[in-house]
Amino acid sequence: MHETFTRLLAGNDAHADEFRSKFDDLQDAQFPDAVTVCCADSRVLQDRMWGNDDPGHLFTCGNIGNRVVQEVGGEQVVSGDVLYPVEHTGTETVVVVGHTGCGAVTATYADLTDGIDEPAGIRRCLDLLAPHVGPGVEALPDDLSDAEAVNYLVEYNVDRQVAFLCDSDEVPDSVTIYGVVYDFQDVYSERRGEVQVINVDGERDPETLREEHPGFADRVRRLWTY
């Protein structure tokens, strides 16, 4: 019955041995270089996708649909999970990470087009996503397969989450906001696990992004320009 958890603890043994000295300078404070907002999905390894094995480098947030929003008093505001490192640790880089085949986007798409029945907690998450994904559903090109439509909407959702941060008075102008898609389904290329840059501070035109950011021009790819 407890085999899975026992395996997790065995893995933690190795982790504790390896990381014994890596917390020496981090026990009393953290100053992460970036905050990443990833979809909560077992296939999306939030630190490892960046090759990161160092504590204190990334402030990782995860939820279904890589949302930067939460609702307070009937109003959508920047989630405290995202805002905390910006407000309190001096972090000036935010990365919104969508991924191919996203289940949350798939469910939101299905709910907006056909309606689906979900438990209250999942329903709440879909209700937070729907206002951001809905306009994209209306704008989708004709004759897409469901899988293609979902991956177009993955980009659209990332764009909308980036736009929400850019438009918020709570996020200082000094913060740079990147929108990316993590691809493990050979949608953008055959290099599984590669991150594709689709948005920087609200700019989503690929040619403009390549011109403005030559350092990662080869990683700028979009499925959908609308």
TrEMBL record:
The keyword Nucleus does not apply. The keyword Zinc applies. Signal peptide: none annotated. Its EC number is 4.2.1.1. Transmembrane segments: none annotated. Its cofactor is Zn(2+). It is an enzyme of class 4 (lyase). InterPro entries: Carbonic_anhydrase, Carbonic_anhydrase_sf. It catalyses: hydrogencarbonate + H(+) = CO2 + H2O. It holds the Pfam family Pro_CA. Keywords: Lyase, Metal-binding, Zinc. PANTHER family: CARBONIC ANHYDRASE. Belongs to the beta-class carbonic anhydrase family. This is carbonic anhydrase. It comes from Salinirubrum litoreum.
